[in-house]
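Response to reviewer comment R2.3. The reviewers asked that we include at least one raw input/output pair. We reproduce the pair for Rhodopsin domain-containing protein here without editing.
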Amino acid sequence: MTGPSRVATILAGNIVVSSLATIFCFACVYSRAHLLRAWEIDDHLMIFSWPPAMVSMSLSCAETRYGASHHEAEVSLSAAQMNLKLSFIDLFFYTTRTAMTKFSMCLFYLRIFHPERRSRLLIYACIFLIPTTTLAFTIFNTFQCHPIRTYWDLTLQAHSGNCKNPTPVFSTTAKTTTLTST
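Raw output as returned:
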């Protein structure tokens, strides 16, 4: 692939952010487990969200070898299909890590801030919304194309495959993600 690309930017963004997240994650583990000697369920969720985050980062970086950040016209069919396979797999790791991190934060807020009734209800609403929307998004991502491999098999897309328009689901997901992040 020749021509301009943003590979360096994508790699730097993924590696720098993931490195900082790793440092903060393990600093939190150290402070909670060794200094405070207090470990709660939100700490477990934070730790369990780290491996999917690292896999997601690795997949995102690997996608640059197969055309991510290059103009579509410069990417071969086989590279584009591999990129789409990696992207398909990454959807699951991304949604898992995001949901676990948010769920951990909600439990942390309940434990630390002892909010008044109204705030607790909002946190409980988020605790309900996070896995519900994650499950719905995961089901949609899995079955948006029939057969499933149509997602990455461009020859099927051109002939017999059928994929639903993901825009309404992505828009809804963006709204619920924003709502549960604030």
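The CA atoms of residues 66 and 79 lie 5 Å apart. The two ends are 40 Å apart (CA to CA). Further pairs are available on request from the corresponding author.
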